[in-house]
Structure formats: C-alpha cells, structure tokens
Amino acid sequence: MSGNTFGTLFTVTTFGESHGPAIGCVIDGCPPGMVLSEVDIQPELDRRKPGTSRHVTQRQESDTVEILSGVYQGKTTGTPIALLIRNEDQRSKDYGNITETFRPGHADYTYWHKYGIRDPRGGGRSSARLTAPVVGAGAIAKKWLFEKYGTTFKGCMSQLGDIEIPFEDWSHVPENPFFAANASILPQLEAYMDDLRKNGDSCGARIDVVAQNVPIGLGEPIYDKLDAEIAFALMGINAVKGVEIGAGFKSVAQKGTVHGDELTPEGFATNNAGGILGGISTGQDITASIAIKPTSSIRTARHSIDKAGNPVLVETLGRHDPCVGIRATPIAESMLALVLMDHALRHRAQCGDVVVTPPPIPGSR
Amino acid sequence: MSGNTFGTLFTVTTFGESHGPAIGCVIDGCPPGMVLSEVDIQPELDRRKPGTSRHVTQRQESDTVEILSGVYQGKTTGTPIALLIRNEDQRSKDYGNITETFRPGHADYTYWHKYGIRDPRGGGRSSARLTAPVVGAGAIAKKWLFEKYGTTFKGCMSQLGDIEIPFEDWSHVPENPFFAANASILPQLEAYMDDLRKNGDSCGARIDVVAQNVPIGLGEPIYDKLDAEIAFALMGINAVKGVEIGAGFKSVAQKGTVHGDELTPEGFATNNAGGILGGISTGQDITASIAIKPTSSIRTARHSIDKAGNPVLVETLGRHDPCVGIRATPIAESMLALVLMDHALRHRAQCGDVVVTPPPIPGSR
Amino acid sequence: MSGNTFGTLFTVTTFGESHGPAIGCVIDGCPPGMVLSEVDIQPELDRRKPGTSRHVTQRQESDTVEILSGVYQGKTTGTPIALLIRNEDQRSKDYGNITETFRPGHADYTYWHKYGIRDPRGGGRSSARLTAPVVGAGAIAKKWLFEKYGTTFKGCMSQLGDIEIPFEDWSHVPENPFFAANASILPQLEAYMDDLRKNGDSCGARIDVVAQNVPIGLGEPIYDKLDAEIAFALMGINAVKGVEIGAGFKSVAQKGTVHGDELTPEGFATNNAGGILGGISTGQDITASIAIKPTSSIRTARHSIDKAGNPVLVETLGRHDPCVGIRATPIAESMLALVLMDHALRHRAQCGDVVVTPPPIPGSR
Amino acid sequence: MSGNTFGTLFTVTTFGESHGPAIGCVIDGCPPGMVLSEVDIQPELDRRKPGTSRHVTQRQESDTVEILSGVYQGKTTGTPIALLIRNEDQRSKDYGNITETFRPGHADYTYWHKYGIRDPRGGGRSSARLTAPVVGAGAIAKKWLFEKYGTTFKGCMSQLGDIEIPFEDWSHVPENPFFAANASILPQLEAYMDDLRKNGDSCGARIDVVAQNVPIGLGEPIYDKLDAEIAFALMGINAVKGVEIGAGFKSVAQKGTVHGDELTPEGFATNNAGGILGGISTGQDITASIAIKPTSSIRTARHSIDKAGNPVLVETLGRHDPCVGIRATPIAESMLALVLMDHALRHRAQCGDVVVTPPPIPGSR
User: Fold this and answer.
1) Closest Cα of chain B to D229: distance in Å?
2) Reported ipTM exceeds the 0.85 cut
3) Cα B4 to Cα A350: distance, rounded to the nearest angstrom
4) What pTM value is reported for the model?
5) Which of A27, A144, A220, A351 would best serve as a mutation to test chain C binding (most C beta carbons within 10 A)?
6) Which residue from B12, C7, C232, D82 has the highest number of Cβ atoms inside 10 Å of its Cβ?
7) B112: phi > 0 → left, psi -120 to 50 → alpha, else beta; which?
8) Does the pLDDT value for residue D318 go beyond 60?
9) Distance in Å, alpha carbon of B224 to nearest chain D alpha carbon
10) Cross-chain Cβ contact B277/A235 below 8 Å
11) Which of B123, B111, B181, B26 has its CA nearest to residue B324?
12) CA of A171, closest CA in chain D: separation in Å?
C-alpha cells in the first residue's frame, strides 16, 4: 500500500534505487507450469537498456537479470518469482552538485518534502532506471498471455518534440533507436536530437501502444475498469503527462453518430473505443497513446532554490536521456501487458476460465 | 477486488443499478470527529442530478440521500458511513427494445460477454447514474480536506463538441447548466445542444478540474503516484477517453527549457507540472483535463447485431443526456477529491501527521 | 483498509450500528448466473436472530433482509449485492447509564480511546448484532459452494461454561436452542443458564465447526494460508479468545508418529490436520473450534472507571445474551463459508478452474 | 493477493525456496528517517538460525543478510527495503526419495494438487526456512516500535511435548536453546529431545509471546481486529494448529464476573483480555499462545501413497528439526511485531498521530 506494488492478483513489487547495489522485483501470482528462464526475460530488458545509441544516456548497464525463485526444473511453480539486476555503472559523483538543490521539473523537491530525506544519487527511487524490473515482469506477462490467448503487444513513437511521425509499417520499429514505424523520417529525427544535445536541451515524445488478440471480457467495472487501469499504469510511467484510449481527445469533437463503433456479424466496423467499452475489453485491438514530457535533467542553467529556500542556478551534469520517450516504448508495452495479465486472472476468479474468443476483426492499423 | 471499491484507506464501495430499488455506497476510513449530516452531502448531489435543464436527461430523481450509519450525535465516529439513495423514476419499459441487441459504443456488448447475463434496464450497473454515490462520498472528502488543509475544488467545461469555451471567470460556472466559466458563449452552446437534440445526435466535451491549497507530499510512488491515481479515477468515469495532468499532450512539443517549472523563493514560477512532480503533490494547484466521448444512446438508427449475431438497426429511445459531459464537472471534482483524501490518509500512515504548507504560489488561473 | 471489509475476492463490506436505522453489507465478487433471492438468505438469518428462546437476548428483531442490487430476474449479475436489514427494536434509553463509564471486558474503553468518540447505544459498532450481515453474506457463499462443489457446513456447541457436551449426532443440533449435538444433556444446560440469569452472571462456550466436501487446493501460502485465514475469520467474531484447527492444542503433546495423518489409496486415515496441510485444503473435512468468553454485559456490579478516570461501579442493564456463544454457531459457520468462498475464487484466479475432487474419505465424525 | 505479502501498510513480500539460490523479502511502507543497517537485523536472524544446538537441524546457514535498497547514509528513506539472504548449505540429494511420494503431515500432497508442480527440495516454498526473511522484517518493525512507543517483545516455550515448563523468569530465555523461562527444567528437556531423536520421532510445543508498552488504540474493527490479525499471523507460522489471546480456551469455563478485567484509576486489575478489547489494544501487555504440532519429517517409516496413488512407506532422511517449536519463539515475536507495526500505521492513517499512552499497568507477568 506504500505504492511499490503494481497489480492486484499478478503483483509486481519492485525495489532499488538508481545508484544502490541492485534493483529488482518480486512477482506474485504467476500461474504454475509455464516454461520460464532468463532467456525469456533478457531480450525485453535489452530493448529498454541504456547506452544503445548516441540519442540515449551513455550509462553502461548490462541489465543482466537473475531469477532467484519461483522456477523449478525450468517451469514456474506458482510461488513468487524474484528478479535481481545488479547495478554496474554508478558514478554518483556526477550528481554531487544536486544534493542541496531542486532541479526544475524533477522529483527532488517533492521527495524531500514528503519524506524529509532523499537519495539524490541519479534520482534515487524516482529514476527511470526503475522501469527495468517492470519490463522484466512484463516479459513474463507477455509470455503467459501469448501462450494462453495469442495476445501480442506492439508500440511505436508517433511524435518526437514537434515532429509527427506518420505510421508506415510495424517492421520499421526494431530497425531504429527511436522505435519509429517509419524509415524515411529517421534522418530528420536524428538531426533533431543532435541539435537538442548540442543546445543542452531536451524534448518530449508521444508513444502509441497496441495489444492484439485480447480476449473479450477483461476489466472489472465500475472502478477497476480496464481503461482506468491502463490510464493508471501508463500515467505512472516516469514523465508521462497524458493518456488516451482509442480516439482519446479527438472524441470531444466527434458526434455520437460517428464515435460509437458499429457492429456487424463480422465484428466491429471501427475502433474509436480503443478496444474497451464500459471498462471491459471488446476483443478488438486495445490502443492507447501517452504524452511524455521533456527530460527535466538538462545542461542548460535554470532558476531554482536550495533546501534553505535561497535562489540558485541549476545545471544538471551527469548522463541523461535527452528524450526519455525514446526508450519508453518497451516500458509502455510492459505496463499494458501487466494490466491485461492482472485482469485475465481477475476475470477468471469471478467468471471462471471461460473466455470468449473475438471474431476476426479488422485491426486498428 | 471485483472492482466496486474505490480507494485504499478512504474506501468507497458502491452498489446498485440504474433501475433497481436503490443505489448507494459504504465509505470506510473516514476520520472520526467530523461534523456531518445529510445537509453536507445533498448540495453536491443536487449539482449532479438529472432533470435540471432541457440539455440533460429528463429523468426525475430527487437523489435524496440518507445516512444509515457512521454518524453519532452529528459527528463521524470512524465507523463505516453508508449512504442510501432510493431510485424513484424507473421507466424500464422505455428500454425494452434493447434487451436483445447491443447499442454501438455502449457497454451492452461487453457486459453480456463478460458475465453471461446483464441488467439492460437503463444500462444497469454501467449507467452514469452510479456516479451519484461517488458524488455523495466526494462531498465528505471535500469537507474533510477543506477543514484540515483548506483544500478546495473547482471545475468547468472547456469544450463542447467542437466549440472551445474560453475561460473567463469561475463565477460563471454555477450560473449556467453547462458549468462553463464563460457567460457570453452560452447562447452558442444552447443552440448547439438544441440542434443536436433535434437531429437525434450527441456530442463530447472537455472538462477541466482544479484542486487548490493541496498540501505538499501527497502521492505514493513509484506506482501509486498521485497523477497515476488521478488518471485512474478520471478515466474510470463513464465515457472518458483521455486524461491530462498539467500541460498534458502539449508537453510533447515543449522543450525541457520551457516545460520544467522553475522555482523561486516565492514558489513555482509556472505550473506545467499540474501540481505533481515524481508522482507527489508540489503544493501548487493540481490541474487535470478529461475528454468525454459523445453519448452512445442516441435516437439515430445505427448498425449493430443481436445476441444471436444477426444484423439489426438500433435506435435508442428512453431518456438520455445528449452530452454526458454536461453533468460531468461535479463528478470529476468528486473523483479528484476522493483521490486526494485517500492519499492524505496514506501519507500520514507512513510519514506521520506533519504536512508541509506550500508557500503562496501564483494560481494556475 | 479501515477494517470493515472481509475477504479479498469475495468481499463483504458491512455497515451499521446496533441502534442506528439499519445494518447491512455490500458483497462484491459473487460469480454471475446463480439463482438468488431473499428466500435463500432469510433462513440463515433466522438461525442467528435474537429472541428465539429464554436463554438469549429478548430484543425483538425480525432481521428481515432486502436485496437492493446485484440480482436481475432472479439471478446474480456479477455486480455488487447489497443487503439491507432495518433495525426495529432499539431501546437506547436502556443503555443510558453506560455512556460515561467503561464496562469491564467490553469495547467501550478502547473505542473511546481510539476514536475519541463512541456510539454507546447497544455497543454501537462493536455489538454482536453486526454479525447479522455476515450471516446473510455467508448464506450466499454457502449456496455457491454447495452448487459448485457440494460443500456443506455444520456446527455445534461442544462446551457451555464448564459443562462439556459430548457429541452424539448432528440431527440434534436444530432441535435445541444451544446448537448442541446431544439431546440428553439439554436439561442440564437449561438449568445452568437459568441459574446464571438469576445470578446476573454470564458464561463462555466452545463451538466446533466443520466444512465437508471441500475441494483440494484452497489456500494461498505462505501468508494467506487457509488455516491462517480461518483463524483470522473466527478470532474476529465477537468474544472469541482462541481458535484451533484439527487437533489444535492437543498437537503439542502428540508425537510425530501419531499426529501426521497417514495416507492410503482410499484417502487419509485420520484427520489431525483438520483438513489443511501447508495452508492448503486436503479435501478432508475442515474442522475448527473456538473459545468464546463470557458476555461482558452483566447485571452484577463491577469495578470500573468513568471517562474522567474516577472509580465507579457498573451494572449493565438492558437486554443481553447471558452466553453469546449460544447464537455463535451459525456465525462461525458463515465465517468459515466466507473464507472458503474467497479462496475458491483466489484459487481459480491463479490455477484456473481445475479442481481436484478428493477421494471418498472417512469423515471427521 | 497470491498470499506472499504480509501486512497492509507495512508490507513484507517474501520470496525464495529452501534450496533455491536465495531467500529474501521486500518491505514497503517503512517510515523514513530511521537509522538502520544490517547490524540491527542480523542478531534477530541469529536467534532463529539453524545449527546452534544438537536439538535443531544441523543445516549450516550463516543467514547473512544484505540490505539492497531503501537506506541512504544509514537512514531509511521511505522507499522499499529489500533484504537478501543467500542459501549456502543446500544438499538437495538428501531429499531425493521424496519427490514421488507424499510425507504424512507435510505440504507435499497439497502443493502437488494445488499447483500441479512442486519443488520438493527441502520442502521448497513450504519450508520453515522461509521464516528467516520474516524475522529480518520483524527486526525492523521492533526497532521502529521501540523507538516510537517503547514497545518491546518477549517470548518463551511453555510446553515441550507433554512437559509443561513453569515460568520462572525471562532472564533464562536467552540462556538455553529451548527459549525456556526456566533453568531447572533444562536437563529434563534435553533428555526428552535426545530420546526423541534416538527414536526417529518428533514432538510439539507451546510458545507464549508478549508485547509490552503497546499504545492504546491499535486494531481496526470490525474485521481487522488486532486479535484477529494476530491469530492470522501466528496460525500462518509453519506447523501452528492453535492460537489463544489472553485467557484463551480457559475463558470458556470462566464466569463473566471473573473474566471481564476490572478497571481502576491505576489501570486494569487483571488481563484475561490479553490486552485487546473489541479488537483494539488496551495498553496492557498483549499476550498470545500458540500450539505447534510435531515435525512431519521423521525417520520412522509411515504409510503414505505416491503420485500414482500406490501405497508406499515413507522415511524422511535429510536434516530436520525434531521439534520445530524450539526455534519458533523469535518467529512468533516477529509476527506479532509485524502486526503491531502495521496497525500502528493504520491507526494514524485514520486517527492521526495522537496516541494515548497507557497508565502504568501491572504487567501480565
């Protein structure tokens, strides 16, 4: 209840700080009997890890995961699965200048006031590094959902700063460091990022995620609606300031005669709903978008105060992502997977293991 | 865990269906010793209730609330507070034609597939009528937060369909049925709604809500962040498709040198954060916006299927709001109040009753 | 989290005070599609209700239950089931003399210190009257478990004060007001109670409960073990001071060569375990016993203090059970049923709907 | 919710199996600012660890604890505290003969049926080895409660097999391997244990625990009563079959004129309540007793079945405690401490940080 556990029946409790000895998590509630080892988890961690291009932080972490429990002879036993990732490249001295001041846009100010103490090394607990255990847990959720229902997850960046990235094809996504579903725009994105870095500035991004082959019936209204839980999961990712499901804010200007997705014997005709009606999955693709704010830690000097309330100028040195959105796609996919996993278990608790398979439905893309 | 309880320490468990004998809720965790009676709750219910203008549903409900427990000699005792609202104007026959078909954009399809049974009368459990108990509970949360911290809540409609409503002054909000903070635009809004009704169509809306005088330190990272919980609460309101905190989706195109709110000895200079950093309240105004989709229940015939999968045309008769967003402002305020109340209690569980009062800060408006 | 909700997936949230307008509960998580109406619930309430013999409180309550929600056309819909019981016979003046003093052995002292306020009328929230909603909820759990697994529940009094009640046959239980599984001992029990009443004193009791035809596999170690949850449920009943599972405290003096129940191809040979091993049900009868202390509210004057700390003598007038254990059997059965129901749902969340049927096993009795 | 998290606000999530690479836990909700390092935790682990006398298992484990997170510059930060203990002495081959059979009285049978898979090495997840992380977490709870309220914890063995151990003085407890508060009886206990070992048999024990200087007001009726939570915590310890609070089962034969503890201006006159009334702490000593069954893993051959249902004889080799009760005292103290810690935080969530200090009260011993 202190906020470090995600989920209700498939729970992920994380621990660790950016520059502590280790980070990790305990996953409770995983169904027994699933084949699982580190090779199922490491590839997802590798998609998220730092240092893989010049456009992200140069911190060098192998993010090697160790399974400490919950697996016997290569299969899950139904007991807690603990994942451990040792931190390898902590250069805490890089951050020494910020222990007494509050970076604008950063959690320094609020952690200090809330707890009366904070670990300033690399942002401590508030660091985006803490998304690594979640991605590890998400890999387990993705595997189970795929084996049980054929559910798959995809994501891409659809906007970088003020550059919109038209969707071309999913096949481009793993081919570039931006997770862009578009090949021709890459030189423009790279030039934009190089320029930002040179100016000691940062930018935001918009990320789209999709879950496909989702069973009908997931979601627990009237509060733990599937869309409410997805909003919770995605808004909780570091730096996220907005979440949309389906048509999102475009719904405001739509008429009812347009927005409501008509049904045909072959399935839904459109997907303004984003795959969720009344807080319950429809069997269509679940689609969501998030707005990620520009990184707070930038080299450009900004006005702030120190702990005593005196005005100071703060420049953030150290190694930081100039756009945290660049590595956010696998994180957002993982959070979406954790929500669906949790609700798959919640659904069968109350309604049993009967799941309605959706008819073949035209994809959202 | 079946999704009908909102909150962790200040919990609201609701019950009831649109056309059942009664709706209500049980509020657990209210601090003892607060003066409370129905007169503290009824005015908030009256702000939300139907039938107050020609632009909302004409269902006649007094929404009279009865406190069944938890209050002794006019004060809360720390035991559960049960609120009961009898339904008075159920005309279930109005809905007879939809028992065998699924309305596009409505929860009919998903409730049916999830549970194998659904109460079709007025939408059953999925009806927006179920926001009434939440508004009742919200009134209690608002009262406690105001008495303890001076916290206040406001909200207004900022867009109706494709009409943006420029903010003029909060004083206009209680003076019109749209909750618009603008007097001059009212004729345009009324004409727009009259036209919609005539055409048997519906529209969406955008609602802004603000909490002021929020103590610093509320929010439980790294999952139960205050912004994540607000997103959960607001996305869970019927028909909401998008949630923004602070600058929201505008953050994507902002540079880090612009977005991160600078601090001065007198407080924050701007409020792109919407009053939350690292998932914890900063003491600034908390600002959020939601996108509400157009009402699904419209008179215009639309393509759908029946339970057997055969194509049908569905026209929704009965009494419906042509824009559910019109009555959404007090609901959104209540959900925000419930989140802050819950986190006020969670904060003091771990950190004690010490709360940092923010310095006087230029309001977001 | 304020303690008025019982269960995790099949949750029962109760409200009300002994002398308030009503008591009741909201049950969330009931599987959909089960036939249910008041006639399924009322008989269980009638087994518990006061005024049915001269050996219990003479308060006259019909305990008529009304289902407010969650049922449509005679079947559960999967949405919350609210039960309402109006209080009918509140004579609060009977209790006027205890508003300023603390009865020895009663919750007066602790409620006052915890909350700074208490409702003294009939014990307020701490009254055993609040077991009525639980019995109502238990009736629903019993029905579902019986229809799904054939599970049944029984209970009897095995000791009244210092009189041990030898077990003869279950058929005697509904035939006497003591829930004794023994007919010949009844005159002795009645004389004992009459004597107590005459002396203004009270006594304790020991109650045994049994669940039969329990599926194998219920229980969630290593903390939410089935026996731990049963202990929680039974110790939480008013006036309970001890709980045993299976051989209970007799286990201490047993050798390992005696205690551990041997297995044969036909099932377990004995049942010292009480049907639970490692916190998980074995398929044997689940057996538990509870110790109930003597009623605190007695006519005999006792030493105590008032709110100001001054010594006083307290005699409790009003109507009270001279042995709260007499009506405790249906309550204990209900709590046991609620635990099994909750764990049936929890089991299938993680492990699916596959349940192992136990082989025919010699009953515990 | 899968049962591996203990507590509501001060949560302990454990992981690991007896013969896996490591065991440990994540503690969430610890108040910030408390001085903490491994030296505060290790001594409690050492009280519980195996191999310290000939009367317990000879498995050699240093149980060295490493704090992985949640502490900065020697103080808790309010973020999760992860404790890691590497397993050092796993001789899994010792257990090879039990992978296909079910030991009488052991969790083998139920884990296998529940999950369809089980880790048989040393009992896997069901091993009493998993109490080590709980004792680590309990050390943190004890420290905070002592610093905040002066609360202390004690425990002793009061019966070994059929030998009752008269209480003499707490000072004896740390001086003998049995945690007996009696020096003269030690030769008898040692002879009893030596005899058991020689015969390949095992025995049960009774353990008493006491918490002193408990603030008034802890406990959250009407379900999360302090006594109910203690019963849950203690019954959940491996091999426990019974729990008593205060007078326990003796209450049954007590009259109301005896049982109810009278109050005087100087405090309570007696403590039959065991420090809890109405589920809320009175400020008196909290006293509880548990019954621990004899160890299931014994060398004597017993009848059982294999996975295929065929009859077999099972002798358990490997290293086992002939009386698991011998090491249970620090575990029971820890569980009690975790319950009080959790309820201290829950109390101040609803009622604020005001705690009533009890008057000086004659101790229970």
Assistant:
1) 17
2) yes
3) 13
4) 0.97
5) A351
6) D82
7) alpha
8) yes
9) 12
10) no
11) B123
12) 38
Q: Mutation target for B interface from A2, A25, A100, A110: give the one with most B CBs within 10 A.
A: A110
Handedness of CA A228, A231, A235, A236 (dihedral sign): positive
Query: If you search the block for the tokens 């003598």, which residue do you land on?
Result: C313
pLDDT confidence bin for C359, thresholds 50/70/90: low
Chain A residue nearest residue D18, CA to CA = A69
Average pLDDT, chain B: 92
The amino acid that residue A300 corresponds to is: T
Residues of chain C contacting D230 with CB distance shorter than 8 Å? 235
Using a CB-CB distance cutoff of 8 angstroms, which residues of chain C are in contact with residue D127? none
How high is the pLDDT of residue C170?
Answer: 97
**Where is pLDDT greater, at C79 or B297?**
C79
> What sections of chain B are H helices per DSSP?
38-48, 108-115, 131-149, 186-198, 226-235, 256-259, 328-351
What would you measure as the largest C-alpha separation in chain C, in angstroms? 67
For C5-351, CATH gives: 3.60.150.10
Query: How far is the C-alpha of B162 from the C-alpha of C306, rounded, in Å?
Result: 67
Q: What is the length of chain B? A: 365
* pLDDT of chain A, 365 residues: tens digit per residue: 689 999 999 999 999 999 999 999 999 999 999 999 999 999 999 998 877 788 878 778 889 999 999 999 999 999 999 999 999 877 656 555 678 899 999 999 999 999 999 998 888 999 999 999 999 999 999 999 999 999 999 999 999 999 999 999 999 999 999 999 999 999 999 999 999 999 999 999 999 999 999 999 999 999 999 999 999 999 999 999 999 999 999 999 999 999 999 999 999 999 999 999 999 999 999 999 999 999 988 889 999 999 999 999 998 876 778 899 999 999 999 999 999 999 999 999 999 986 666 654 544 44
List, as ranges, residues 206-245 from B with C-beta within 8 Å of A: 206, 216-217, 219-225, 227-236, 240-245
pLDDT confidence of D245, banded at 50, 70, 90? very high
The strand pairing partners of D144, in sequence order, are none
Q: How is residue B357 annotated by DSSP? A: P
CB pairs under 8 A between A and C: 42
Q: Residue A297, annotated ligand binder?
A: yes
Higher pLDDT: D240 or C49? It is D240
Give me B13's structure tokens. 């468990």
Chain D residues with beta carbon closer than 8 angstroms to that of A78:
2, 114-115, 117
Cβ–Cβ contact D337 with C under 8 A: no
* Chain C residues touching residue A1 (CB < 8 angstroms): 1
Nearest CA in chain D to C205: D252
Which of A247, C124, C69 minimizes the C-alpha distance to B24? C69
**B92 in reach of chain C (CB within 8 A):** no
Burial group, residue B93, by CB count within 10 angstroms (0-12, 13-18, 19+): exposed
CATH architecture of B97-351: 4-Layer Sandwich (3.60)
The C-alpha atoms of residue B124 and residue B149 are separated, in whole angstroms, by 38
- Please name the CATH architecture into which domain D92-351 falls: 4-Layer Sandwich (3.60)
Name the strand (E) or helix (H) holding D211. strand D205-212
The answer to whether A16 contacts D82, with C-beta atoms less than 8 Å apart, is yes
